[in-house]
Amino acid sequence: MTVNLLLTGATGFIGSRVAAAARERPDVRLRLLSRRAAPPAPDAAHVPGDLADPATLHGCCASADVLVHCAARVDGDPDAVAAVNDLGTRALVTEAVRSGVRRIVYVSTAAVHGRGPFRGVRPGEVPVAPVSATSRSRAAAERHVLDAGGVVLRPHLVYGKGDRWVVPGLLGLLRAVSATTLTGCDARQSMIDVVTLGRATVAAALSGACAPGSVHHVNHPAPVPVPELLAAVGTLAPGPPADGSGAVDVPTALERAAGSPRALHHLGMLTADHWFDDDAFWQEADCSPGPGFPRAFARAAPWYRTFMTGQRAFMASK
Fold first, then answer.
1. What is the DSSP-derived secondary structure letter of residue 53?
2. Helices and strands counted in the chain (H then E)
């Protein structure tokens, strides 16, 4: 039986991988919701609609069997973020319910839990306690989806080709503190490569195994120790720090990063466990959790090197 799948955020980092995974399924007819006009595609229909303008969403879910919602606004002023993530999701879910969509899947973020430490926590074991306007708006979006009987997926750190936040941010942190690694920082981080997340999202949308109104932590079952993570990120750097400092401890890193909010954000994350456990998801969705961090990162490393080289060239030209 053919499934009509409506996808939001198909041009984004995660949504594009969900679209790619959906295209691999011969039983899926893909439709892409976008505020921009799209060129004709033989394997996907364009559905006009803008999450920031709920009136444009009327009728967008007509004939859809499944809605996969990956679109999100992560920057801008709080009102603009809430307009897309909170109010836009509410309008979208309302349309899905009105149109009889039988399954809704929302790709959210573990950031709705706030800052750790979180050590092997399963869904429902720690409260939703967002600390930023973006995370608060995404927590509100989750509530709209769950109230409609939808499924929420919460990855923590998503990496791979197209990532402009996690790994580039960690590399920027190392540059900001003039170090190759941090000492006294042995926390563990849940991670998932974006290709596996795309497959997992489609599996959750099509399998029907995830219970209505359920939340799942979608990460590789093995959390990544911070020393291993930073060692991998460090291989992308063009060379050692200019002052030859190598490793620095966390207090020193905090002092050196004081003028960089982004570096402080990443440093605060690294120094606390963010380990979210949910092995049952992979069994329920009948989906492999992928190869794990070392192999998946090695696969993405050439793209990261090209991206970071471009970033350095851009900054040098300014």
1. B
2. 11, 15
Token pair, residue 114, equals: 């706030």
Enter the tokens of residue 57. 């969403």
Amino acid in position 138: R
How far is it, in rounded angstroms, from Cα 137 to Cα 79? 9
> Minimal CA–CA distance to 11: which of 28, 48, 36?
36
Q: What is the pTM of this model?
A: 0.94
Residue ranges of alpha helices (H) inside 49-165 are 78-82, 89-99, 133-147
Give the whole-angstrom CA distance, residue 268 versus residue 254. Answer: 9
Considering only residues 113 and 178, tell me which one the structure prediction assigns the higher pLDDT.
113
Residue 287 has pLDDT above 90, yes or no: yes
Nearest Cα neighbor of 108 from 82, 85, 83 is 85
3-162+191-221+273-291: CATH, from 3.40.50.720, 3.60.10.10, 3.30.300.30, 3.30.70.270: 3.40.50.720
